[in-house]
Design a protein that fits this description.
Largest sheet: 5 strands, mixed
Number of strands: 9
GO molecular function, one term: lyase activity
Low-confidence stretches: none
Radius of gyration: 15 Å
Distance between the termini: 34 Å
Organism: Halovivax ruber (strain DSM 18193 / JCM 13892 / XH-70)
Keywords: Lyase
Number of helices: 2
CATH architecture: Roll
Order of helices and strands: EHEEEEHEEEE
Helix content: 10-25%
CATH superfamily: 2,3-Dihydroxybiphenyl 1,2-Dioxygenase, domain 1
CATH class: Alpha Beta
Oligomer: single chain
Structural class: alpha+beta
Protein name: Lactoylglutathione lyase family protein
Mean pLDDT: 90
Length: 118
């Protein structure tokens, strides 16, 4: 078994694509009103507009995508000005695991972390 993709539900595809384009500093590989995809090598991160298919969705906290970065301090500073809400006011540290969570433009919780082996 191999992970192929992770996707989060979105209410406003344009707003979500704008948010994630700025967050990932890249454009989606595929952009449609129903589903948009950002590719990370062998794993895709998708944005799914369930209303397009006539489904009702409860937004936020359906899944917590976890992104590793080289420098969590730089990421925190950049994302703090981008994200509608930071869940943690500071970076949390658990041994060499440093992390913070924020809320995206559609109410989904996202985690960012780095492993500092100092």
């Amino acid at each position: 078994m191999e992970l192929s993709s992770v996707y989060v539900g979105v209410e406003d595809m344009g707003r979500a694509v704008d948010f994630y384009s700025e967050l990932f500093e890249s454009e989606p590989e595929q952009e449609e009103e129903r589903y948009s995809i950002f590719s990370f090598g062998t794993v895709d991160f998708g944005l799914y507009n369930a209303a397009f298919d006539g489904y009702e969705t409860r937004f936020g906290n359906n899944c917590v995508p976890n992104f590793e970065v080289a420098d969590v301090d730089d990421a925190y500073e950049r994302i703090e000005s981008l994200a509608p809400k930071m869940i943690h006011e500071t970076i949390l540290e658990f041994g060499d695991y440093r992390t913070f969570h924020f809320v995206d433009s559609e109410g989904n919780e996202i985690e960012v972390f780095s492993l500092d082996s100092t």
